[in-house]
Amino acid sequence: MGGEVVVRKPKIEYTRSREYRVLKTLTEEILPGEPFIYLGRYSWLLSPKKEPLELDILFPNKPLAVEVEGEQHTRFSKIFFKQREDWAYYKECDHVKVATCASYNLPLLIISPEDKIDAASLIARIEELIHANTAT
Predict the structure, then answer these.
(1) What residues make up the domain containing 30?
(2) Which runs of consecutive H residues, i.e. helices, occur in the chain?
(3) Contacts of residue 52, Cβ cutoff 8 Å, sequence gap at least 6
(4) Distance between CA atoms of residues 97 and 119, nearest Å
(5) What is the CA radius of gyration of the chain?
(6) How many independent structural domains does the chain possess?
(7) How confident is the model at residue 76 (pLDDT cuts 50, 70, 90)?
């Protein structure tokens, strides 16, 4: 996992979003003081079109990556996509993220819309993920 990293800082409009609440819980309650990258794109994580893909949160020293999924990850919506082919490509990129992170032994915590995002729930999921990753 090397290469160029492009980092964007959280914007004010994110402060009410589910993604930002997960970020806040992880960085303030679960892993305080742990360096992280928010919305980074990585040269080692490439889409089928060979474009760098984004991870919502990456803790490079742990290692742990986090993806906070919205409804656009589970169903087609014209709010997010012009056509179904765009959604299919988006889903393909999701699969690439999972496979690539696995190939780098980088635990990827995927938080779906129905998942709880309180500290206790996230800690349990992280421990389960890390245990599963070290058992392989």
Answers:
(1) 5-135
(2) 18-24, 84-103, 119-135
(3) 4, 6, 41, 42, 43, 45, 46
(4) 24
(5) 15
(6) 1
(7) low
Tokens 């986090």, residue located: 66
Which token pair is 78?
Answer: 């014209």
| DSSP for residue 67 | E
- CA–centroid distance for 31 within its chain: 16
Direct distance between the N- and C-terminal alpha carbons of the chain, in angstroms, rounded to an integer:
19
Q: What percent of the chain has pLDDT above 90?
A: 25
> What is the Cα–Cα distance from 5 to 130, expressed in whole angstroms?
24
The whole-model pTM stands at 0.75
CATH number of the domain enclosing 47: 3.40.960
Q: In whole angstroms, give the CA distance from residue 59 to residue 65.
A: 6
Rounded distance, CA 65 to CA 57, Å? 6
**Cβ–Cβ < 8 Å for 45, 55:** yes
Mean pLDDT of 4-10: 48
